[in-house]
Target: DUF7878 domain-containing protein
Amino acid sequence: MLTYKIGPLETNSPQDYLKEKELHKHPMGIWAFRSFSGDFEFFIKRHLVLAEGGWNVGELAMQLNDWLETGLQTDFHYDCMDAEEKDLFTFINHGGTFQFYAEWAAEGLPKPIARQDLEEFISVFRADVKERIECELGFNVSAYLGQYLPLKLSCVRFIAHADAPQSSG
Model:
């Protein structure tokens, strides 16, 4: 089971990039979208494996969505525009299961992840990020994350997957 928490969203984009509420209509809208960030915690089987402040959740959702749409046939390498390092983390494809890997992730990573669990995580994460950007920041990002959502979320709900354990400290 893969779960996560996302703190309140913010952006570091120049105000000029944010003039259009449908970001894809602005020539620099993709950069504004990719800069939507929030504190991020990622859990595998209730084990915290990643915790970072100011994580580019819009960018991550878009990259995961693109990978899902291609059928998860390859390894996934998260490449953040704000980081000097490439591959901040990777899901390594072992032909039906996936292993999470990051050089600086928490010790003792859990066993491989089932394909179905990863597909569900990506779908829910994408929907949550899309809804959060719309509700908290007022931007339509359907052009980057797609029109179809597997579920309808409430704008008043704090988006932290319900099964994620509470972090300590």
Notes: Residues 131 and 153 are 7 Å apart (CA to CA).
